[in-house]
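Chapter review: from sequence to fold.
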Amino acid sequence: MAAFLGYSPSQWVLLCHRIPRLDFGLESRGNTFQPEVWEYQQTLLVLSSLSALCLLLSLLGVSSSLIGWCCRRRGNHEEVDDSDDDDECDDVTGGRRLCCVTWGTVGAVVICCAAIGIGFYGNSEANDGMYQMTYSLATANHTLSSIDILVSDTVSLLGLAVSDQLTRLEELLSRRDDLIIVARNARRQAEAVIDLLSNLPLQATPPLSAAQLTTQGNYTAENQTESAVTVDWAAQRVGSLEEYRWLSYVLLLLLDLLICLFILLALAKETRWLLLLMSSLSWLALFLSWGSLGLETATAVALSDFCVDPDTYILNTTQLDLGVRQDVLEYYLLCNKGMRSPFQQRLTQSQRALSNIHAQLTGLEAMAIPQFPQAEKSLSELQQVLNVTEGNFQQLVALLNCRALNK
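The token string follows.
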């Protein structure tokens, strides 16, 4: 997915990706991941239908075996021979046939048990992979939410400082024009930081202007980015679907395993009713197993198409759905060391503005407090707000780095 991350699809992914695709008209189609396109959906349905074909062949094979066994059994009963030697020979032949059927059934059950064990392992591995995916989405959502909180706190603090402390300070210093100019410069710098932070390209919703922030005095959670909400929804959705998928496959595999064990028990105890019951249930398990295999085949192939080139699909889909700038998406997906951050310019300007405010407040403390002692409280409060803002700003710079989402 990125040179920095060292991503490369596995051999299984490449193998599934190279599977030929045919639509309902048996025409060849591409293998580019396009789940919203009907032609691509047709190719997945055709692959799923292969399990239906295998199910049909299985039913024909089992039915043919049962019909042949019943016909041979009826033919043996219709033959009448008075010779004792012939009767003894028939008994031996019938016993051999029954022994062959029994051991054949035992062999089939053992093979099924081995396949069930592989199924449990594969289901566990799939669950681990989906858990890692859910954990990654939750981590990304936590990072984006932390960015929103930091931006909200920083902008709220600066907006409150502009509307409260700086306004009082200008009133106190109204008799000194030179000090008023310094205070107003600090106000303009604070408003510039508010505009820069509230217009970060990460956010897809329209931000509040500096004038609105200074009048309202806060930056509410309604201004959170749509990307954070979408990632949180995706994490919860994937987690809930995986729970149902894991449980359904565990129950299916347990059903197959119980059927196999009871068939062995019926053969050992020579219990005809139990053998007939398990044979009937095995037909149900046959339908469920082949149906689940078709669903898993389509899912595995679709995920392989996505994992071969995930960047293209994510860039196109996210840009259309959320309206996020393409350079922001490329920065977080590729995360190359030589790639310039789309936030770099705004963060640099914000850092310079904060440094200027700090210098101006330091100058006001030296010049204003001897003549206006009552301004000391406002200046002290402004310095505290500035210190908190600078701390939040450093955390924001670290979180906006692409490595915070790709860790």
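Two observations follow directly from the output. The chain has twelve helices and two strands. Confidence is low (pLDDT under 50) at residues 80-92, 204-229.
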